[in-house]
Specification:
Layout lengths: L3 H6 L13 H20 L12 E5 L9 E4 L8 E6 L14 E5 L13 E2 L4 E2 L8 E3 L5 E4 L8 E7 L2 E8 L14
Antiparallel strand pairs: 1-10, 2-3, 3-4, 5-6, 6-7, 7-8, 9-10
Length: 185
């Protein structure tokens, strides 16, 4: 019979007299079982994707640096007000020759206060929100820089076709909604 100290130093692990598994054998067996259960579904993984309308929202040639252009998407509603802006540097999700044209929803994700035209293309930020001073980084998909918000601004996904700019989707939820595709009443 092996002593406890022999089991701890053995590279093979130990089984007690009553058929107890070593920690190594247990982890190996449970890992193999988990792999067996998940392998058949790996080939079937699908990305959930919502379909949004494709809507022309502006032209690259008409955008003036640091002057936000207001538009509504995906519905014609006050909560769907967004801003298209040309930034001073390239941005995540940016379009145009310099990848510096982006668009974001105008509602703060903390309590839904309006950011209105508080989009700064030179500093590449949105905010601060007038309620709790949250600011958002427009070069990093609208992530929170400071303040009470815990979720970044919803970014409007853009495509260009020649000089024309199209909104084609939304990354993130508009404040107060559980589905960006369902128009408010």
């Amino acid at each position: 019979m092996k002593k406890q100290t022999d089991c701890e130093t053995s590279s093979e692990g130990c089984s007690g007299e009553l058929g107890q598994l070593s920690r190594r054998h247990f982890l190996f067996g449970s890992g193999a079982a988990l792999l067996t259960l998940t392998l058949p579904t790996l080939g079937e993984a699908q990305v959930l994707r919502s379909e949004y309308p494709r809507q022309k929202i502006g032209n690259l040639s008409q955008l003036i640096f640091n002057q936000p252009l207001k538009f509504r998407y995906p519905w014609d509603h006050v909560n769907a007000e967004n801003y298209l802006i040309r930034l001073s540097e390239p941005a995540g999700g940016g379009v145009g020759p310099e990848n510096n044209v982006v668009a974001f929803n105008s509602l703060c994700t903390h309590q839904g206060a309006r950011l209105d035209e508080n989009f700064d293309g030179k500093a590449c930020i949105a905010g601060p929100c007038y309620l709790h001073w949250t600011t958002f980084d427009l070069t990093r998909h609208g992530m929170v820089i400071s303040g009470h918000a815990t979720v970044g601004l919803p970014q409007i996904l853009l495509e260009t076709e020649g000089d024309e700019i199209y909104a084609v989707g939304i990354q993130g939820l508009i404040f107060g909604y559980s589905n960006n595709r369902q128009a408010p009443v």
